[in-house]
What we know:
mainly alpha
Amino acid sequence: xxxxxxxxxxxxxxxxxxxxRREELRLKGNMKRDAYREHxxxxxxxxxxxxxxxxxxxYQFLRxxxxxxxxxxxxxxxxxxxxxxxxxMVQKYxxxxxxxxxxxxxxxxxAKAA
Length: 114
């Protein structure tokens, strides 16, 4: 059951984001370290958050949860998920080989049903 490893990765990414946020708050107000705080913030937003989202999508795909239940489609997507990362994780942690077309079919099933 390799999806358990993916679940652990999700929890680790959440803990990393919390830790970074805590460090950002600790550095707030210290003008000497503003550049470092900004670096931490950008890492949390651009790297950790995107990886967590891709991991979450891969985990839910492997569990068989419909895409429409995974993401809130009422809100416009500011930045699309990194489907290449989702595919990499699905292939790594899944039981059967899948392609990007399989992920597109999963994602578009919601659009066709609506």
